[in-house]
Amino acid sequence: MFLSRQNFYHLFLLSTVLPTNAAIDRHALVSKYTPSRNASNPSTPMQIGNGNFAFGADVTGLQTFLPFATMSSWGWKNDSLPSNRTIEDVYKYKGESWYNHGRLVQYDFGGDPEIEQWLTANPNRVNLGSVGLVFLDTHTGVVRNITESNLSDMHQKLDLWTGIMSSSFSFNDSSINVTTTSAQDTSAISVTIVSSLLSPHTRNTSTRLGIFLDFPWADGSQKFSAPFVGNYSSALFSNHTTTLLNISSSSDSGIQAQILHQMVDAVFYTTVGSSTKINVTRDSPVAHRYTILPRTETDTISLVISYNDVLPNEIPDAITVTQSSIDAWEAYWMNSGFIDLLTGSTDPRADELQRRIILSRYLMRVNEAEDNPPQESGLVNDGWVSLKFHMEQYFWHCAHWALWNNWELLRRSSSVYDRFLQTSLIRAQVQQGWPSGARWPKMTDPSGRSSPGEINNLLIWEQPHPLVFAEYEYRAFPEQDTLDKWAEVIRETANWMSVFAWFNQSTNVYDLGPPMYVVAEDTSPNVTINPAFELAYWRFGLGLAEAWMEKLGEDVPTNWTKVKENLAPLPIENGTYAVYEGIETDFWTDPAYINDHPALVGLHGWLPQTPGLNLTVAKLTAEKVWATWNFSNCWGWDFPMLAMSAARNNETENAVEWLLHPLFQFDDVGMPIGGVRVPTPYFPGSGALLYATAMMAQGWDGSEGKAPGFPRSGWNVQAEGLSMAL
Ligand SMILES: *[C@@H]1O[C@H](CO)[C@@H](O)[C@H](O)[C@H]1NC(C)=O
Ligand SMILES: *[C@@H]1O[C@H](CO)[C@@H](O)[C@H](O)[C@H]1NC(C)=O
Ligand SMILES: *[C@@H]1O[C@H](CO)[C@@H](O)[C@H](O)[C@H]1NC(C)=O
Ligand SMILES: *[C@@H]1O[C@H](CO)[C@@H](O)[C@H](O)[C@H]1NC(C)=O
Ligand SMILES: *[C@@H]1O[C@H](CO)[C@@H](O)[C@H](O)[C@H]1NC(C)=O
Ligand SMILES: *[C@@H]1O[C@H](CO)[C@@H](O)[C@H](O)[C@H]1NC(C)=O
Ligand SMILES: *[C@@H]1O[C@H](CO)[C@@H](O)[C@H](O)[C@H]1NC(C)=O
Ligand SMILES: *[C@@H]1O[C@H](CO)[C@@H](O)[C@H](O)[C@H]1NC(C)=O
Ligand SMILES: *[C@@H]1O[C@H](CO)[C@@H](O)[C@H](O)[C@H]1NC(C)=O
Ligand SMILES: *[C@@H]1O[C@H](CO)[C@@H](O)[C@H](O)[C@H]1NC(C)=O
Ligand SMILES: *[C@@H]1O[C@H](CO)[C@@H](O)[C@H](O)[C@H]1NC(C)=O
Ligand SMILES: *[C@@H]1O[C@H](CO)[C@@H](O)[C@H](O)[C@H]1NC(C)=O
């Protein structure tokens, strides 16, 4: 069904244009939560960035004392192959074959263990290098051993409205001010330093201030390397090279130095521009550290440090970088969704929830607006196991962009489904022998290759995600272009979903699995069949795919409908839904199954009511999860997902409590704390928080009243520019 022109215009307005008389004082609310520090936090940086690039700073506004990372969406490298192995061995790699209902299906795990390990660790995401202040002995030029404890009056703040980070502190009696901003269209920072110590000759001081650049080695075996990335140890100096390139003296591009960093086959260029003439020298022939000093007497220096994978001919100047930050951030805050929970609310919890929302909105744009789906720790570090991205987490990382109406940011990465379509068709049909469809990878990198690992290959809840992203895009842009753009992805996604479902002649229904892994990854894959959440998601997804074909005016493939209407019923044990069909009756008391993501509450919460879902049973199931699950072993998006289940059940008080659960914490700058088994930051938690709060504030299909997810009393919720959840 097509919308009338009038409705279309109305929807378009709702989804993309803000009322010019926006009632919320956005600037006041954003400013209220300005992060500030008086000392470095040893585990999280203060960050600036643009979604494809981010720079993490200690209290000096740089990476002077703590080597927080400079990360990008494009900075990847491969380690050397194991000795005596060639790239041919990589191309030849074949994993094991497991039976899927009597048919052998080949996966990317097992087989050649050396190559399997290399494929897991490669490519890996690099730290582009660090930038910090260096304190030199004025007379000898030797580096003085200065630590943070030698500084005083340290104050740092991050202006969220402009993306400008300001740090001020004193060394002995001299003040040093550092202002750092990130470019918005390129991977560059501007750094302005104001201090008399830059100009030692006019003062009688023993210390001269300079800037250092340093480049670490990184390899894919560095797992759980948070909070830092890369290795600066001298033992690894010879594993990589850096070279100070000659700059043409006739160049008027403002470029004053360029350093080539080579790690195995990957090359990275760091280009330095400066407001004053600088002298860049290598600290020693073997180290990868360089010192920058102004050549003339000055109290101020403005540098631009630009990171690239090809040698740039020009880089922006510091004013341009700073202006781009101001413009982009102001546009972001003004031209997308906004929630004011605070003004007029009497509930004391509103303040902390508002803080989490504002800081998460900032950090999502810095870390989770890449050209590819983000990794769990965004551009802060490589804290999670893989350094890669996980397509099943993509929903939690990025679906909130749809509800908050940040389509430009979402489209950077949602195009991944187009880019990965060919390899996913090959995975499904050529490698695994399914008659049709595309099977999306789980853990992957910009090439779309599926990383080895049983779970990586046997998880299935990543499969329906594109159907949901497409649906949201159509709701915001109900146009033929949107229908056409997603048509192939939808067709092949649903094709594989329908052929993966296996017709069971003894029960006359379509089964999901075995083999497969459930959301919580904690059941045995060869016995896991008909898991409740995945069945519901399959029905929901196939329904969206059918509706898409109808909107396109095309026939709905009969396989989709047959499967959707004859999928196995959701498994029920003793009055509640069960993780999967045939799981032990008393699984609610078995520690093996009541840890980790409680997807059972997603049946009605994360998902809307799906065909065949009994709301009474779903509610009993959610309540049983709330009462019995081992939450000490839950993390991140589990808590917003629990809040969404509470909200859909009109348990609004609980919904708020889940969002503020003691095990779901955000630090002083809004970094989502990981968990027992999970490094910090764990950004799916932030994305889920924004998804849940948008849903609770703006509502969902069929919800009633204003801010239906928030308690009736104590809360005054104002939402602007948000879209409803499905
Ligand atoms: C930092 O110091 C200032 C001034 O001494 C103080 O007002 C502020 O509360 C401190 N901030 C933090 C985060 O400790
Ligand atoms: C790493 O190697 C793989 C396999 O040869 C290749 O497809 C990929 O492009 C390489 N990536 C990088 C960043 O070099
Ligand atoms: C290198 O690999 C070949 C073929 O796998 C093997 O025959 C040879 O012994 C290996 N050489 C070394 C030094 O490991
Ligand atoms: C699953 O079954 C396959 C045979 O199809 C077997 O090779 C594999 O070891 C089994 N895995 C587990 C975890 O039982
Ligand atoms: C630098 O000073 C700190 C304490 O001020 C000390 O722990 C450290 O060992 C010193 N480092 C060097 C290289 O002297
Ligand atoms: C550094 O910043 C502080 C606070 O903004 C200011 O009071 C001081 O004058 C600045 N110092 C210099 C050298 O600009
Ligand atoms: C560094 O290079 C050496 C010599 O090639 C190699 O043996 C070693 O494994 C490398 N170290 C790391 C951490 O990559
Ligand atoms: C640059 O620094 C080096 C090392 O400190 C010094 O030898 C050289 O004279 C400096 N060059 C200029 C032009 O200042
Ligand atoms: C439809 O399903 C049947 C039975 O699973 C399968 O043989 C056939 O290839 C499927 N057709 C398509 C287009 O997926
Ligand atoms: C069935 O559920 C009831 C009520 O929650 C509980 O008391 C009973 O122990 C359960 N039975 C089994 C076999 O788990
Ligand atoms: C839902 O389940 C409850 C409890 O088992 C049952 O009483 C009710 O009839 C079911 N509702 C529907 C529509 O099947
Ligand atoms: C939700 O509960 C409130 C009372 O807490 C009630 O006023 C409201 O009507 C309920 N809404 C729905 C949709 O059931």
From TrEMBL:
Protein name, entry field: Six-hairpin glycosidase-like protein
GO BP annotation list: carbohydrate metabolic process
GO molecular function, one term: hydrolase activity, acting on glycosyl bonds
Taxonomic placement: Eukaryota, Fungi, Dikarya, Basidiomycota, Agaricomycotina
InterPro entries, per database record: 6-hairpin_glycosidase_sf, 6hp_glycosidase-like_sf
Keywords: Glycosidase, Hydrolase, Signal
Signal peptide: 1-22
Keyword Transmembrane appears in the UniProt entry: no
Gene3D superfamilies registered for this protein in UniProt: 1.50.10.10
